[in-house]
Design goal:
Blueprint (H helix, E strand, L loop, with lengths): L1 H14 L33 E5 H7 L4 H5 L5 E5 L7 E5 L7 E5 L2 E2 L18 E7 L10 H5 L2 E7 L9 E10 L3 E11 L3 E12 L4 E6 L2 E6 L5 E15 L2 E15 L14 E16 L3 E18 L9 E18 L5 E16 L7 E15 L3 E16 L8 E12 L8 E11 L3 H5 L11 E16 L2 E22 L6 E22 L5 E16 L17 E11 L2 E10 L2 E2 L9 E2 L2 E13 L4 E10 L7 E3 L2 E2 L4 E10 L1
Parallel strand pairs: 4-7
Antiparallel strand pairs: 1-6, 2-3, 4-5, 6-7, 8-9, 8-35, 9-10, 10-13, 11-12, 13-14, 14-15, 15-16, 16-17, 17-18, 18-19, 19-20, 20-21, 21-22, 22-23, 23-24, 24-25, 25-26, 26-27, 27-28, 28-31, 29-30, 31-32, 32-35, 33-34
Length: about 650
């Protein structure tokens, strides 16, 4: 821990010379865009939302969305090896499966695991990223995203309506450990329609060196079976006959092939398992606007195919070669209306069907019908806005080959108060409560090694009080936000990897209490058009404990939830040249719910640095070159015990755009 503290201090010293000038807020409102997913429809005072702009996304040079989400306050990232590896998140310790991810207004669906691998969600085409911990009142996103415990909203370049004749984004990246990454997105638009297409290819050997402490000895090795190769492509057509209606239909597909390196264990550092996947997604929607009412109809079809191979598994057939096919069909309608001067209403209905078929004869053949209804209203008072919402969910579970889980019906309320800005410092308050639940995934219920069809769904109660102030707003703009929150999760289901990141052990903790606080600042100083200095920072405290009466681990911190996390970024730009230093800190965690020394996972600080130059070419043409060094202090660290992360590595990025 002493080494971690020293590196933390060194990282802070890298910031001190420029901290007083600060950075443009990564937690801010996005510019208004003409798109259905509705990042532009987010009201400024709608619960607890944090934003990241396209400029910040570009400067961070992230491999995927998972890395970007790790920069948000309240977000716990689990990364199983970095390059191409599995990345999951949970928001404020309520679990990754309470979080719904929306891309351009359509939910990413996987009922097999009920969580999104953000390591396979590309970052090159993102123009806006939002994390919501409360509600999405007034938006036309999917009903599922409006009733979930938290939501991730992703806006892509390809699915924004545009009237420009041609827009283009292309990038090429080359880096350590055989990293090669290429992306091309093209969008052509006229007054009433647009058509877009994109393609992306990534690969890496992933053979990075690592070290870890084994008693009094330091062991060194090279990561093996950590290669990956994937490609993504898709197209969208949009039609807007007039100001009152617009339509979109699109298709996306991704194919992945990756090794599963497993946990680094002394004398057993290699593995031969592989994971191959194919994701297909067909989606479409229509939005109709009346004088004070907007209605959106949407539907999507998802096909997820996953194959797991372990040639060295000792069994009668000489290894494992098993495939899983998860299909889902979803449709819904949402609306918002301001029929009265001080009252607005919103609501919607969504129906989803999903099933899972496996070549494993021991795995069940489940299917699920999930119906969600939502109705809400906001009333504007002289001092602010009161919002009330009530959702109802009915889940009908079936299993053709074995005992099925019980059917579920739940009512989930939301209530919040959001004040107006007051005073010289523009003080703004928000108080809200949300109730949500999540069904166990098909894996948790039916997987032949760990499934339990009698599992109960998790229920989460979330309470939040937040305040925001803007004490300085001139050439130097300073904004400060803070939140106090309390979450109570009942019948919590925990999954912890055992042999590798595909084979898990399930644990159930009846009750979990989460006491937490977030503090964020952002500052921007612009002397003139040539100079800009920016800084952002956030700190999150989470005391997430087993609160089950009589539990052996009563009062202990839940596995893999750090008590302290922090981020601090600083950037400076002079004309077309810029530099950014990005720091992330995570305190110790425990690999099991038993908080003893041997279960500690050491905390760490990582520092990344990047420099870039943008060449303004002909009208609307930009060329940009960026050089990034990640983990510049060469820290040996891991998010999950024995799944070591890369040491110091570099990345060269070339971007060309027609704007």
């Amino acid at each position: 821990m002493g080494n971690t503290a020293n590196k933390f201090l060194l990282g802070m010293l890298l910031i001190v010379p420029v901290i007083s000038f600060a950075q443009k807020d990564t937690v801010q409102n996005l510019e208004s865009v003409d798109v259905t997913v509705s990042l532009e429809l987010i009201e400024r005072n709608s619960s607890s939302m944090k934003f990241m702009t396209e400029a910040d996304i570009s400067e961070l040079a992230a491999h995927d969305v998972g890395e970007l989400l790790g920069k948000f306050s309240g977000v716990n990232l689990k990364s199983y090896g970095g390059l191409g590896g599995l990345k999951t998140i949970d928001v404020r310790s309520i679990g990754s499966k309470h979080t719904v991810a929306n891309v351009d207004g359509f939910t990413l669906t996987n009922s097999q695991s009920s969580q999104v691998n953000f390591g396979q969600v590309q970052a090159d085409n993102i123009v806006g990223l939002c994390v919501s911990s409360g509600g999405l009142f007034g938006m036309l996103g999917s009903v599922a995203s409006q009733v979930a415990g938290s939501a991730i909203l992703i806006q892509s370049f390809e699915n924004v309506f545009t009237s420009d004749s041609l827009k283009l984004r292309t990038s090429a990246k080359y880096g350590s450990f055989g990293q090669l990454d290429t992306y091309l997105g093209v969008k052509y638009g006229l007054k009433k329609f647009f058509v877009s297409t994109f393609g992306k290819f990534r690969r890496a050997r992933g053979n990075y060196g690592y070290s870890y402490e084994n008693g009094l000895e330091t062991e060194f090795g090279i990561r093996e079976n950590n290669d990956f190769q994937d490609y993504h492509y898709g197209a969208t057509i949009g039609f807007r006959p007039n100001r009152s209606a617009k339509f979109r239909i699109g298709y996306r597909q991704s194919n992945t092939d990756q090794g599963l390196p497993g946990a680094v264990i002394l004398y057993n550092q290699t593995a031969d398992e592989r994971l191959m996947g194919k994701d297909k997604n067909l989606f479409g929607d229509a939005v109709v606007n009346f004088s004070k009412t907007s209605i959106r109809f949407y539907s999507s079809w998802n096909y997820n195919d996953l194959t797991y191979i372990d040639p060295d598994f000792l069994n009668n057939s000489g290894g494992i070669d098993v495939s899983y096919t998860n299909r889902s069909l979803k449709g819904g309608v949402v609306f918002r209306s301001g029929l009265f001067n001080n009252i607005s209403v919103n609501g919607g209905v969504e129906q989803a069907y999903s099933n899972l078929v496996s070549s494993d004869s021991l795995f069940s053949n489940p299917d699920r019908y999930h119906t969600i209804g939502l109705l809400g209203a906001s009333y504007w008072l002289g001092v602010g806005r009161i919002t009330l919402q009530l959702s109802g969910q009915y889940v009908n579970e079936g299993n053709k080959t074995a005992h099925s889980a019980n059917d579920i019906f739940k009512l989930n309320p939301f209530i919040g108060f959001f004040s107006k800005q007051t005073g010289e410092f523009k003080i703004y308050h928000k108080v809200w409560y949300r109730n949500s639940f999540r069904m166990p995934s098909f894996n948790e219920l039916y997987y032949n090694n760990i499934g339990n069809s009698d599992l109960k769904p998790e229920t989460a109660h979330q309470f939040n009080y937040g305040v925001e102030i803007t004490p300085i707003e001139n050439s130097l703009k300073l904004q400060i936000r803070s939140n106090l929150f309390f979450n109570r999760i009942s019948d919590k289901i925990l999954g912890i990897p055992t042999k590798n990141l595909f084979v898990w052990s399930m644990q159930n903790v009846s009750t979990v209490n989460v006491f937490g606080a977030e503090c964020m600042y952002s500052a921007t100083w612009e002397q003139n058009k040539d100079w800009e200095l920016r800084s952002t920072g956030n700190y999150t405290y989470q005391r997430s404990t087993d609160a089950t009466p009589g539990s052996f681990n009563y009062g202990n911190q839940i596995a893999y939830v750090p008590m302290h996390t922090a981020n601090m970024d600083v950037s400076v730009r002079f004309k077309n040249t810029g530099m950014r230093i990005s720091n992330s800190y995570i305190s110790i965690r425990y690999s099991l719910n038993e908080n003893i020394v041997k279960n500690e996972v050491e905390g760490f600080l990582t520092t990344d640095a990047s420099v870039y130059y943008t060449l303004k070419m002909a009208r609307r043409n930009d060329f940009r070159i960026q050089f990034t060094i990640k983990n510049i202090l060469d820290v040996s660290y891991s998010y999950v015990r024995s799944f070591v992360m890369p040491g110091r590595n570099y990345l060269i990025t070339l971007n060309y755009a027609i704007n």
